[in-house]
Amino acid sequence: MNRKETFSETEKRPLIILAGPTAVGKTECSLLLAEKLGCEIISADSMQVYRGMDIGTAKALPEERLRVPHHLIDVCDPTEEFNVVRYKEEASAAITDICSRGKIPLLTGGTGFYIQAVLKDTDFTENASDPDYREQLEAMEAADPGCLYRMLLEHDPKAAEEIHQNNIKRVVRALEFFHASGERISDHNAREKERQSPYKFLFIVLERDRGELYRRIDRRVDLMMEEGLTEETRKLKEAGCTRNMVSMQGLGYKEMLAYLDGEYPLEETVRLIKRNTRHYAKRQLTWFRRTQETVWLNCAGFADVDQLSGHIISLWEKKKKEQE
């Protein structure tokens, strides 16, 4: 369809968000939607930013990226630090660039924290990190694993409820925020959620019945193994990637590193990847259920992805008319 639209500098810029749990079918739907509506895709996946991590992150294939321009994929090496502050800055710049060419940005992925930062235009400037304090926290965690999460439970129980105890990066950020500002990050995040978005947006969340979603997750992991997840992880390890790096905390990679270190047999490693991915999908759904102004679409209610993408387009056209 290859539409082209014009936007005045004073009106809110358009933004379509296509979110949902891992393996729900976002990639296929986003490609078809982008082709029909004239969109460029911005990845909202915290792991797809890393180069050399293709199989385990289920990136769009090179030929798929030729069909539709993609942004925020392969922007840094696995050994580099990448966080929500940098993501929001680069994604916002991509949105501005896409709109300047009369295209519609399509933010697609399952990292809710990243999506919220862009949608609400979260201001991170006042939350500068403290490298010395962070180093102190990391040393404490190394000496006593789990101690940082216990600290968070004491200082900010609500944040501890929303952050998985193994997500050390976010636990550290929450403690840093409290240390720097004296304010609980859960209170800050609640306030940020009330911010008005600078975008004229449609926020779609795809879902499937739990049994079907879990079957799709299992099939995806089996396919990743067939495509060479073991060898991909081995190359990353040989390149100097270690378990304490943020990139190596990604699903599939942390379990595979344990396998390569002789901690588990391969069959048990695959079982753990499938189990942990199912748990992650549940946490993603919980996040999106707490997000306001979302439209939930069960993929089972549509004959195929063509019908699903067509329905999303009709919702977008309706949304634009309501906001005129």
What is this structure, in a nutshell?
The chain is 53% helix and 10% strand. The protein has 324 residues and is of the alpha/beta class. The chain has a six-stranded parallel beta sheet, sandwiched between helices.
Overview of the structural elements:
By secondary structure, the protein is of the alpha/beta class. It is built from 14 helices and 6 strands. The protein has helices at residues 26-37, 62-67, 84-100, 112-119, 131-143, 147-155, 157-162, 168-181, 185-193, 210-227, 229-238, 253-260, 266-289, 305-322, and strands at residues 13-19, 39-43, 70-71, 104-109, 199-207, 294-298. A 6-stranded parallel sheet has the order 3-2-4-1-5-6, sandwiched between helices. Strand 2, helix 2 and strand 3 form a beta-alpha-beta unit. Helix 6 crosses helix 8 (168-181). It starts with 12 loop residues before the first strand and ends with a helix. 35% of the residues are buried. The mean pLDDT is 91.
Supply the key terms:
single chain; 324 residues; alpha/beta; Rossmann fold; Histone, subunit A; 6 strands
The tally of strands reads 6
The share of residues in extended strands comes to 5-15%
The shape is globular
Gyration radius over CA: 20 Å
How many domains make up the coordinates?
2
Order of helices and strands: EHEHEHEHHHHHHEHHHHEH
Largest sheet: 6 strands, parallel
Report the end-to-end length measured between terminal Cα atoms. Answer: 23 Å
Q: What would CATH call the homologous superfamily of the largest domain?
A: P-loop containing nucleotide triphosphate hydrolases
Spatial strand sequence of the major β-sheet: 3-2-4-1-5-6
Mean model confidence by pLDDT: 91
How does CATH name the architecture of the largest domain? 3-Layer(aba) Sandwich
Unreliable runs, pLDDT <50, ≥5 residues?
Answer: none
Q: What is the name of the CATH topology of the largest domain?
A: Rossmann fold
Helix and strand composition category:
alpha/beta
State the helix count.
14
Q: At the first level of CATH, what is the class of the largest domain?
A: Alpha Beta
Helix-residue proportion = 40-55%
